[in-house]
Amino acid sequence: MNSEKKYKHIFIDLDRTLWDFEKSATQTFEEIFEKYELQKFGVSSVELFTATYKKHNDILWAMYRDGEIIKEVLSVKRWFLTMQEFGIVDGELAALIAEDYITLSPLKVNLFPYTHEILSYLKQKYTLHLITNGFEEVQQVKIDASDLRKYFTEIITSEMAGCKKPDSRIFEFAMDKAGVVAEESMMIGDDLRVDILGAKGVDIDQIFVNYDSEPHSEEITFEVNNLKKIEEIL
User: Fold this and answer.
1) Confidence grade of residue 170 (pLDDT, cut at 50, 70, 90)
2) Is residue 187 within 8 Å of 88, Cβ to Cβ?
C-alpha cells in the first residue's frame, strides 16, 4: 500500500497521545497538595490523594463522555468525592481546587517523546487536524503552552462537536469541518475504544499508539508503541 498517495488528512488525539496527561496531572496534584496543606486534613500523601482522585475521576469521566453528567458537575464532584474519602466534606474547598486544577494542569508542558518531531514530519506530507474530548478552554491552553497549534489546520473539540469520541458523530463532524472523506483520512490515538474503534466505526483507518504494548484482540489498521515509528507507516 502506498500510504503517501492514499492518505491526505491525519486526525490526531491530544491527551495521552501527544500530551503526557499523567505526568502533567501528577505535577499539578503535588502543587495543590502543598498549596492547600492537605496533610493537615488527614491526607497522608500526595500519592494516595492522586490514586483516590483517579478512581473517582475515571468513573465520572466515563459518565461525562456518555452524556450522563455535564462538565461543571464533573469538574467539582471528582474533587468533592476524593476529599470526602479523607473525611473532608467541603464543597467550597472542592470548587477552589477544581478551579486551580483547570488553571494549572494545562500549563504543565509534558509531551511524549518525538511529539514535535513526528508532527513536523507529518505536516510536510499531510494536512493535520486535532480531535479531542477534553474541556474546550483547557485544551486550547495546552495547545498554546506546548506550541502545538502551528501544526494543525483544524482543532476539533467534543464541546464544539456536541458529542464525544467514540461517538461516530464527532468523527463525521471533524471530517465535514476539514472537508475530507474517510478514505483519505487516518486517525492516530492512544485509546483503543475511544480513538481507534471510534474511527474504525466510520471507516477511517487508524494508528493505535499503544505505549505500554497492552495485548488486545481488535483488528486495527496499524499499531506502534512510540510516535517515532509512525514514520515507518506514513
Assistant:
1) very high
2) no
N residues, the chain: 234
Q: What angle do CA 1, 227, 170 make, to 5 degrees?
A: 75
Task: Count CB atoms within 10 A of the CB of residue 100.
Answer: 16
Q: Which of 21, 2, 17, 7 is nearest to 192 (CA)?
A: 17
Which of 188, 128, 125 has its CA nearest to residue 152? 128
- How far the first Cα of the chain sits from its last, in Å, is 11
- The pLDDT value given to residue 5: 57
The yes-or-no verdict on residue 18 having pLDDT over 90 is yes
* CA 216 to chain CA mean position, Å: 21
Element (H, E) at 64: helix 46-65
Contact 3, 233 (CB under 8 A): yes
pLDDT tens figures, 39-77 = 998 899 999 999 999 999 999 999 999 999 999 999 999
